[in-house]
Specification:
The protein has about 120 residues and is mainly α. It has one domain (about 5-115). It has seven helices and no strands. The chain has helices spanning about 5-10, 20-35, 35-55, 65-80, 85-90, 105-110, 115. Helix 1 (about 5-10) crosses helix 2 (about 20-35), helix 2 (about 20-35) packs across helix 4 and helix 3 (about 35-55) crosses helix 4.
């Protein structure tokens, strides 16, 4: 676990300008290894929401993206049970793409105002 970034995230002491997609995945992975899913998802969502607010863009927080992404990482982690983040990402390279949720969500649904405040399931086909 990269304790520095995850500890800073939990303390709401992350610099949003250096917290990119890889860092999002790293912290989600670390939290899911440290806590059960419910607690990890709550801590992660609150942290991401705080980051967006500190950046002056609270409307950038998206509950659907946050919970869907955490669920996907949790599922993959359950299958791999690796304790090495680099090995985890090597075995799950699609998680490193910002578009990983596109296979379940349309852009319109995922980026809707409703998706920002309510967790939306993927639309039925």
């Amino acid at each position: 676990m990269n304790a520095d970034i995850t500890n800073a995230f939990e303390a709401h002491a992350i610099d949003n300008t250096t917290f990119g997609h890889v860092e999002h995945v790293q912290v989600a992975y670390d939290l899911l290894r440290k806590y059960d899913f419910i607690d990890a998802a709550t801590i992660y969502a609150k942290g991401i929401r705080t980051l967006a607010a500190k950046a002056g863009a609270p409307d950038k927080f998206n509950l659907t993206i946050t919970y869907a992404f955490m669920s996907l990482i949790a599922e993959r982690l359950a299958y791999t049970q690796t304790d090495d983040f680099e090995r985890f990402t090597q075995g799950n390279p699609d998680l490193m793409a910002n578009t990983v949720l596109d296979q379940w969500y349309t852009k319109e649904r995922l980026n809707s105002a409703l998706a920002r405040g309510v967790f939306l399931l993927p639309a039925a086909a």
